[in-house]
User: What shape does this take?
Amino acid sequence: MYTKKIQQHSARTQFSTHSTTGTGNLKLIPLGGLGEVGRNMMLLEYNEAILIIDVGFRMPEEDMLGIDFIVPNISYLKGKQKNIVGIVFTHGHYDHIGAFPYVFKDIWTPGLQIFASPLTRGIILKRQEDFSGQPPLKITQVKDGSRVKLGPFQVEFFRQNHNIPDNLGLFIETPVGNIINTSDFKFDPTPVNDLPTNFQKLEGFARRKVMLLMSDSTGAEQENHSLSEKTIEKNLEEIFQHSSGRIIAATFASLINRIQQIISLSEKYKRKVIIEGYSMKNNVEIGNLLGFIKFKKETIIKAKEIDNYPDSRITIMCTGAQGEGSAVLMRITQKEHPFIRLKKGDSVILSSSVIPGNERTVQILKDDILRQGTKVFHYKMMDIHAGGHAQQEELKQMIRIIKPTFFIPIHGQYSMLAAHAELAKEVGVPEKNILIAENGQIISLNQKRIAVERLVVPSNYVMVDGLGIGDVGDVVLRDRQMLAEDGMFVIVVVVDRQTGKVKGSPDIISRGFIYLRESKGLLNETRKKVIEIVNKTAGSGGAVNWIYIKDEMRNKIGQFFFTKTHRRPMILPVVIEV
Amino acid sequence: MYTKKIQQHSARTQFSTHSTTGTGNLKLIPLGGLGEVGRNMMLLEYNEAILIIDVGFRMPEEDMLGIDFIVPNISYLKGKQKNIVGIVFTHGHYDHIGAFPYVFKDIWTPGLQIFASPLTRGIILKRQEDFSGQPPLKITQVKDGSRVKLGPFQVEFFRQNHNIPDNLGLFIETPVGNIINTSDFKFDPTPVNDLPTNFQKLEGFARRKVMLLMSDSTGAEQENHSLSEKTIEKNLEEIFQHSSGRIIAATFASLINRIQQIISLSEKYKRKVIIEGYSMKNNVEIGNLLGFIKFKKETIIKAKEIDNYPDSRITIMCTGAQGEGSAVLMRITQKEHPFIRLKKGDSVILSSSVIPGNERTVQILKDDILRQGTKVFHYKMMDIHAGGHAQQEELKQMIRIIKPTFFIPIHGQYSMLAAHAELAKEVGVPEKNILIAENGQIISLNQKRIAVERLVVPSNYVMVDGLGIGDVGDVVLRDRQMLAEDGMFVIVVVVDRQTGKVKGSPDIISRGFIYLRESKGLLNETRKKVIEIVNKTAGSGGAVNWIYIKDEMRNKIGQFFFTKTHRRPMILPVVIEV
Assistant: This one.
């Protein structure tokens, strides 16, 4: 299947390369992140040279049963590894770096140049330790103001506020004109462990003329201005001021800013901090090592030391604000944590917005915490989480400052891209210069026009399930969905080779369909029907057509089950001749 | 299993009946609706006499694969049918009437008395047509001010505003004191086809002394006051004013008010209305018949007549605002509807709030509509949907008016009940008089105290899957979850009865695990391992222990698969001796 994909695609690229060779056109190819949240990956191609921006993953949809992550389809890059002039990462969130270990060995060549800020680099390198058999990974550190020349592209990095520090936007000079990729961003006048947006720098870019602005759309459906990290800290502080019991703060491990805030407030209010959760511990370690998370050494204690301090002196910081089954907060709530149990007087802070699709799980988590007499604070009650993404007023401000000729909204569901396009129109970008692009499109760009080519590159979901990357396709998923719905029913019939008649009673194995022990009548009827089907066909003389008999079993037994139960289990007949 | 449940429960009831006989205690037994949204059913028991309030269902949780609905467990009522003095229904929403067809024949006795308002009655009777083999159903109509004496209870019905008309609250006189059940409600000064709340009547109840108030908690986490239906109509009207293309309005079939509003606005703006969707058509028919939905006869046209009118004269009203796969709006969006396709200029109105858990589906629906160049209006953009439930200020007002001795929050997730309990405390109900109860508890009540008995009645989920009610239990669900995650793998080994050795090559059937055609190597290795396991054990002399061999296959092949793929398919070995 994979080979086929590559072949298909080669045919396409030959064509599209041919069609633009020597025309001085620049091509943008989004492999992910457009029309979805996450899986951000974008290619810039000029003649042969390819620059890669970010390699992120995303979480699966609800009907993708058993799938761990979805990563970009990189078959467009197969055979073009030597053309890759570099990979640049904007920041350390998994929707921008998460797919890297899954695609690295397929795009690696000796001398491949990779660039990231110190924190982003630290997170990528730490994560790489969990993957074996990878090529040697060297990442060059860059920072605000760094410039690197990569083939026909010159990339200049500039800092942007977000809810993780060390986030870099990109100002890219190309032979055709200048391009800005904002990275995820918000304008934050009072950020944490970071400087506020450098508007003078943005104005400087505008003076150098920006042909194309690609800007983060995640917050484009939200009115007004995003919250400053400072405001969140104030609201969190109120909880600290009024809590006399333990504080249990759950958030994403990747929200380095939030982690810093909780630690700082704990120090201010003389609380020790217990950090629980593998990814949370890792990130605190890296963040601290690189100076992005600061605390006094004696602040952090181990979970088993919890009883050495009064409740009013304890903060527990952990993962699990989304109600994830295996995360620390769930284990605490379910009384499965070795040292920590909820009790009356505790305050639980859920400091992250709810990822769409997780609402039910978070509700159940909240209910379970409240049932134990513990208080719950969550972002719907007060502003204790900022999304990290610019909202409508900031997005318009960015466009007004940059004054780009062309505009492409990036990062987000289609409705977010569409809303962002409306904003661009509002602040004066002509409609014909705004492009709502989709994954896999080839966007061709010169100083005069922006257009989508007729051909596309493969950009379908590549699903990661355990060790398999892309080996679970539609067939396997459809089977899982069918199995999930009504279970399955295996019928094993032993048939006499001579007579073609059934020997003994058919074996039945069924799971997820009905409770077998209470359905003896149904099973006996089924066995009788199976014997009838086989014997009738076998008795008709001539060579036995087993394919026909199996089809008959599937259809007739399927109908029989539907009449009796209104369910449609997957029916799998096995015939054994002896 | 079912018999066992009844026996268990009989033992319990004997005890609890014994413990309260002759004490003049009243018992409340919530069988559903507490700690969850939906499945509302409550019993009032005095000595032997039982009054039932509502028989609703709810939607399954995400991990209840293949389940259609969840209904209350009514095993407490088994053997007590003759004690049921009546069933009263508050209103026609499925979370209050939906489980009725599934439990009716188990609680029916000749002469069973059932009461509902005309619209509620119409909806119940219409739905009953879809169920065969039911006992004869007679429902007595009641209205605002009706009083019925049912054993020791006198029930007085009073109208309450909600987003379906003909909704009735209950004022119940019992030998112990008076009880109010608010039904779902909001205070709406300007309702649709309905009168505003009769506060004087509520004050009258208060003067007669209310021992216990049970009040709707669904909106208890929402600040301020709920929206009036009039406000929604104004906002909807703005869309009608500014639309020159077709308007496609999607909402719940049960939101009779919203349906009336869309029809009224269509008439005002000279649009014909096409009604699409089985349940929507049914409800319009009943609502119109009973006078709760009013329109001119010529307003309603058939879908196939759509081309006889210009776009500006067409409204399509349909189901599917939640992105339900089989509903009309999805079929239109997916280009599967026989007569209707989306086009530029159309305006789609999603006039219902998103049910928790449906957020992703609604997002995908929205994106697909926008991709076709159609405008989308949804409740997050403007107030075009009111939840129908009283919010914090109204809930406090209700408690202030009624001045109950005791307070029990009903209808809602635990977090909503807890928030409602806080509100009751705020307006002066003493904490010891407030009870956050849970399904299955027996709440014992006299003029002096409210308490929860030590024993509980069964109130676990009874799952409806196709024709089966309660036959899918935890085992079947766990199997479905496992099958959904990594699929399954059946190994059929034919073994020589004499030698105990494998004959031929084992048959393999697998679904949902890996793509078999691309995994020949893995399959061959698996076959080899299976033969080794069987032959090794068989060769060890003595009687062959097939149970041991099957366990070996499950364990060893399971480990092998996990090492190779990090997946854990369900492994099902079949051994056939010949």
About this structure: The first helix of chain B runs from residue 2 to 20. Residues 226 and 391 of chain B are 5 Å apart (CA to CA). Chain B touches chain A through 65 residues (CB under 8 Å). The two ends of chain B are 37 Å apart (CA to CA).
